[in-house]
Design a protein that fits this description.
The chain is built from 1 helix and 10 strands, in the order αββββββββββ. The chain is of the alpha+beta class. The N and C termini lie far apart (96 Å).
């Protein structure tokens, strides 16, 4: 009888574990995004599109067009420098076609490899864009 009780307990435990795994799997996102790394946004459109900056840039911007939302939701722009998260910006999405953007202030010492990940409300990665920040050019004041 002890073997039967142990077997039943094991089956219940496995059923519970499988149920937890299924509950924690985020749903597949219905959102799609178009993104542009830029130096600013004017009239809801990106300006100064680029893939690299110098350290005197002050700010970098990520413009994003989100399509496919069936209800109000959010996207997140997560900024990483050399693999370390530097900032997360949560942005509302309020229609099936929505433009939004974020910016990140950059200190002159923050050179190196960067990337921004765009995530949906369940942290599914919708897009990733790498970029670099190189040291600022020294000015020549010898005139």
């Amino acid at each position: 009888m002890a073997k039967v009780a142990c077997g039943v307990s094991l089956i219940l435990l496995l059923t519970f574990a499988v149920g937890l795994a299924q509950e924690t799997t985020p749903p597949k996102s219905e959102l799609t995004v178009e993104i542009e790394l830029c130096t600013g946004v004017e009239e809801r459109m990106p300006v100064g599109m680029t893939e690299s900056f110098t350290a005197d840039v002050d700010q970098v911007w990520l413009w994003c067009r989100v399509t496919g939302a069936t209800d109000t939701t959010v996207v997140k722009h997560v900024y990483y420098r050399e693999g370390v998260e530097m900032a997360t910006v949560e942005l509302p999405v309020k229609s099936p076609s929505w433009r939004t953007w974020s910016s990140k202030n950059i200190l002159p010492t923050w050179t190196g490899k960067w990337e921004i990940k765009v995530l949906d409300e369940y942290d599914n990665v919708l897009a990733t864009i790498p970029f670099t920040i190189s040291p600022a050019m020294a000015s020549d004041d010898s005139e």
